[in-house]
Amino acid sequence: MSLPLILIASPALADANNGNWQTAWRWSRLLAGQYRTQIVKAWQPGEHPQAVAMLALHARRTAALIAAWAEHHPGRGLAVVLTGTDLYRDIHEDAAAKRSLALAQQLVVLQEQGPLELPDAYRAKTRVLYQSTTTRQPLAKTAQHLRAVMVGHLREEKSPQTLFEAARLLRDRSDIHIDHIGDALDPALGTAARATMAECPHYRWLGGVPHEAARRRIQRAHLLVHCSRMEGGAHVLMEAVCSGTPVLASRIPGNVGMLGADYGGYFPWGDAAALADLLRRARDDMNADASTVSRLEAQCRLRAPLFAPAAEQAGLLALLQDLIPS
Fold first, then answer.
1. Given this structure, which CATH class describes domain 146-306?
2. What is the DSSP secondary structure assignment for residue 3, as one 8-state letter?
3. Cystine design at 245: which of 122, 166, 240, 282 (Cβ 3.0–4.6 Å)?
């Protein structure tokens, strides 16, 4: 007897190398052995007739698949996973995203602040499911300078302008190095990154790199910088936490939901001066017994168990058990 088939609807496939694809691929692996999975970017009625449930990533961008599934397979399992742009923009403005909320049997948010953004009527069918990543051994790092890395494609939601401005404020600090990873999805932001490199000798825009190479750079950095305006539950935060690399993050709900309300490494969204001050402080007290970096490392270690693969797998299996009739 073959295993039940689950469709994972994703607006991005492997060529995009983004968070949606990483989630879809990881879920397919976590479910292996209990379910068969098929990752789809499009779905038409009649395709995959044996599928017993759909897990749809992104309420707006997979809205057509969600609506078609609900129409042609009423009562068959349907969960909608809400991204940052869903939670903090689209479900308030976009009719298709709002309809996805109503059609879903279960809603999934990726960090503990997510349910607060939903209308009261939908909270009873909402669950928090933290994403996961593998744990990596923390690396010894030089005391000669501080290296910070930001990882995220250059687009408006990631607020790379905050990093550009902070790099300019730190241009005279030869002991603070900033690496920036990500493709220029907005060409104007790529132009701005190149201009920042020209002005700031210790800022480097590296462009897009393979996922494994990005993880190694996170592992080697003293700090990860995360400037986003909106996030549903950023992969890069858990990758840093589970590599022993603490985070400086914008204080937005999606980041607070990942790192905790009392985390000590926040700066106000868009405040480049505050980010630059945090980087200066981290460098200046690097060799102290209770350094900024070591304090943030200790806080991140407390959050790391939330991002364990076994925890995510258990949550996925519980979700599907609720979605699929016995």
1. alpha beta
2. P
3. 240
- What type of residue sits at position 89? R
Q: Tokens for 21, please give them.
A: 């694809």
What pairing do the DSSP bridges indicate for beta strands 77-81 and 51-57? parallel
* Per-residue confidence (pLDDT) for residue 113, from 0 to 100: 95
Prediction pTM value: 0.89
> CATH for 5-132+308-323, among 2.40.50.200, 3.40.50.2000, 1.20.1600.10, 3.30.420.10?
3.40.50.2000
Residues 6+ apart with CB under 8 A from 256: 113, 263, 266
CA distance 184 to 158: 11
pLDDT average per 10 residues of sequence, the chain (326 residues): 91 66 90 94 90 95 95 94 90 95 96 94 96 92 95 95 98 97 97 98 96 95 96 92 97 96 98 98 91 96 96 97 87
